[in-house]
Write a structure and sequence with these properties.
Belongs to the GTP-binding SRP family. SRP54 subfamily. Helix content is 59%, strand content 9%. The protein is α/β, with parallel strands linked by helices. It has three domains: 80 residues, Four Helix Bundle (Hemerythrin (Met), subunit A); 192 residues, P-loop containing nucleotide triphosphate hydrolases (Rossmann fold), CATH 3.40.50.300; 139 residues, Orthogonal Bundle (434 Repressor (Amino-terminal Domain)). It starts with a helix and ends in a 5-residue tail after the last helix. The protein binds guanosine-5'-diphosphate and magnesium ion.
């Protein structure tokens, strides 16, 4: 999905002016890309119409960078479609907070229960896991194993009691033992059936949970959305956990489930391990889908691959305006170790759409050239590039096996780079103040 949309919208990026025909054409492709990603067709239709309406408005067509604005509209609308802001859990003023999980068999309820418990524990809460799946023989054991692994107690009463009674008993137990969050794992079935719904409703009535989270499997695409719709009729769902959004899931379910059920995705599962649960941020997912950049992941990536101390030195240099070609060379080497440049630049907002900056997004082959040019400079030239006059340029070009134009281009890029790094420095700071994922 991501690639399709990026290609389509990429065509708009380069355009100085976008007319109605361009928008319509782009939207036709967006529509196809969404349908192919298994997004509900009604949702697609409404979405595309909304974007078209906004994009064809005068405000956009008269603007300086219409292409970017169209992309921004698509991004905003995707975010809106998925619920806008991240949605928090409701914690009760009177502990314990009771969270009930529901969903079909194999969607990842038991795993999600453990993942939530693990997360709460890290937040200094005291979770209690409750084994209410009395259907599958190994279900209780599975929860105990996970509980042991994350060192969270598990409450169970075997498989002879009714799940509603087990849940009730667990809440009593939690009160006596100062457990402040009770996570109730329930049974699933292969398909939605009356038997299952009755059982879950009985649990709901008996314990009145603060949160009922439906667990759906992203890999099942539109089926996940239909199932969610069905559960939503019988249970007072407060949100959704969408699992298995790792791998090559097409992601269509994440885009339409909020629209269809009215219930937000609160968490996503991105792997089998207990740590692989994330608070769902609609804006981040739409940015990622469109390749418009996720500042947070860029910063994380930069932080992990950049030596912390070197980064600080660099920041100082940038601030004191003593950033030289020597540093540039070192930076290039750092950047190379971060991964493909395109990917890095795409993560910087505004970068992927900004033509001027795009021009300087050196590709890997060009990097080799750049290194050669810098290596042909004297120490003085690297430190004070302003001394590089035309005869020096000729010498450098000759020494590096390039042309004077290449040297000129690099000098210009270096200036832009300095500017950009200043911007990045700013962004880094403001980005850090924001909440980190999880
Ligand atoms: P339940 O029947 O709903 O309780 O489902 P389980 O929690 O037992 O999970 C079923 C399978 O899905 C297990 O093999 C899990 O490891 C796997 N699983 C659960 N969540 C995720 C996820 O986010 N990503 C991936 N790749 N696998 C998951
Ligand atoms: Mg289970």
């Amino acid at each position: 999905l991501s690639e399709k949309l990026q290609n389509t919208l990429g065509k708009l990026k380069g355009k100085g002016k976008v007319n109605e025909k361009d928008v319509k054409e782009a939207m036709r492709e967006v529509r196809l890309a969404l349908l192919e990603a298994d997004v509900n067709y009604k949702v697609v239709k409404e979405f595309v119409n909304k974007v078209k309406e906004r994009a064809i408005g005068e405000e956009v067509l008269e603007s300086l960078t219409p292409g970017q604005q169209v992309i921004k509209i698509v991004r905003d609308e995707l975010t809106e479609l998925m619920g806008g802001e991240a949605t928090e859990l409701n914690f009760s003023d009177k502990p314990p907070t009771v969270i009930m999980l529901a969903g079909l068999q194999g969607t990842g309820k038991t795993t999600a229960a453990a993942k939530l418990a693990n997360k709460f524990k890290k937040d200094n809460k005291h979770p209690l896991l409750v084994a209410c799946d009395t259907q599958r023989p190994a279900a209780i054991k599975q929860l105990h194993v996970l509980g042991d692994q994350i060192e969270v107690p598990v409450f169970s009463m075997g498989d002879k009691q009714h799940p509603a009674d087990i849940a009730k008993g667990a809440i009593e137990h939690a009160k006596k033992n100062q457990r402040d969050v009770v996570i109730v794992d329930t049974a699933g079935r292969l398909h939605v059936d009356e038997d299952l719904m009755t059982e879950l409703k009985q649990v709901e009535e008996k314990i009145s949970p603060h949160e009922i989270l439906l667990v759906v499997d992203a890999m099942t695409g539109q089926d996940a959305v239909n199932v969610a719709d069905r559960f939503n009729e019988d249970l007072a769902l407060s949100g959704i956990i969408m699992t298995k959004l790792d791998g090559d899931t097409r992601g269509g379910a994440a885009l339409s489930v909020k629209k269809v059920t009215g219930k937000p995705i609160k968490f996503i599962g991105t792997g089998e391990k207990v740590e692989e649960l994330e608070v769902f941020h609609p804006d981040r997912l739409s940015s990622r889908i469109l390749g418009m950049g996720d500042v947070m992941s860029l910063i994380e990536k930069a932080e992990t691959s950049m030596d912390q101390q070197k980064a600080q030195e660099l920041e100082k240099k940038i601030k004191s305006q003593t950033f030289t070609f020597e540093d540039f060379l070192e930076q290039l080497q750092q950047i190379k170790s971060m991964g493909p440049l395109d990917q890095i630049f795409d993560m910087i907002p505004g970068m992927s759409g900004n033509k001027k900056l795009k021009d300087m997004s050196l590709d890997e082959k060009e990097l080799v050239k750049v290194e050669a040019i810098i290596q042909s400079m004297t120490k003085e030239e690297r430190t004070y590039p302003e001394v590089i006059n035309s005869s020096r340029k000729k010498r450098i070009a000759h020494g590096s096996g390039t042309r004077v134009q290449d040297v000129n281009k690099l000098l210009k890029q270096f200036e832009q780079m300095k500017k950009m790094m200043k911007q990045m420095g700013k962004m880094n700071k403001s980005g850090k103040k924001k909440k980190l994922p999880g």
